[in-house]
Write a structure and sequence with these properties.
alpha+beta, 5 strands, 31% helix, elongated
Length: 88
């Protein structure tokens, strides 16, 4: 009776562990130059906080750049989108 319960549970756990191990994982991207980072098809995310407390989160992919920045007041908060060298 107990084996009828434990065998399906064991099989489900085994399948879950195998799927977890074999599932593709995101690997960190090594960037050799700034030019490669801006033109590569891989999305790159960069977080930065300067000494004045301005927080910047920037994403680059395939020649496009999106940057969101937040500061202590509304004048130092905004976003920038650059596509094909043009600011939007």
């Amino acid at each position: 009776m107990l084996t009828k319960i434990f065998i399906p549970i064991f099989v489900i756990l085994l399948v879950g562990m195998v799927a977890f191990i074999l599932w593709p994982q995101k690997k960190p991207v090594a960037v050799s130059t700034i030019a490669n980072a801006l033109t590569d098809s891989q999305e790159i995310e960069c977080d930065y906080v300067d000494s004045d407390g301005l927080q910047t989160k920037t994403y680059t992919k395939a020649g496009m750049l999106r940057s969101n920045f937040t500061g202590s007041d509304s004048k130092s908060t905004g976003r920038v989108l650059i596509r094909d060298g043009k600011t939007k």
